[in-house]
Amino acid sequence: MRTIYVLDQYTNGHEAALSFIRRQKWKKKECNIVFCGTHAKLLRNLAENPGYGVVPVMNTIRGEVTSVTAKISELCDQGYTFEITDVYHLQIEYCLLVHKCFRSGQTLTRVISKPEALSQCNRWLKRHGITSAKRGVSNSTSAAARRISLLKSGASKRIGAIAPVSAAIAYNLRILAKNIADDSKNVTTFHLLYNPWISE
To answer: Where are the domains of the chain?
Structure first.
């Protein structure tokens, strides 16, 4: 069984992982996708265990994903080695998701997502009155969508999440707006990493 470490389910990284499986002509049933929660944990798992890791390294809007590349450099300085097995350029389509009970005409009081997604949708958020003070950070877009789906009180349901369509479907959320990134040609480059020192 081939292990593939990914940030979280229903994220762009998850989509990239599925694309890598197809590109490598691996059988999906022979691949075990492990969701790690943070990129730091993903890279640590890859450094210490056999398998592959899927990480974003560059975005056409915001440039290098330094939270990932810096961690890779840190681990390499500690003696770990990662080989780039494949590279995939994924078109990113971020949506603004809200709870099913969010009513038309209501205004959002807060939007949450991972820092990179908030940054890539900055102009849209500012145009709709979502200032920096009204933005909250999560470990992944999926974690943000999951949090929205679990909201209970009416007032708190005025919080939105930036995430892919797959997260809206998975968590039964309403898509309030589609393709909200600052540039419609929003592309993230993902690397499929492998640790050559730990064989499977």
So the answer is: 2-91+186-194, 95-177
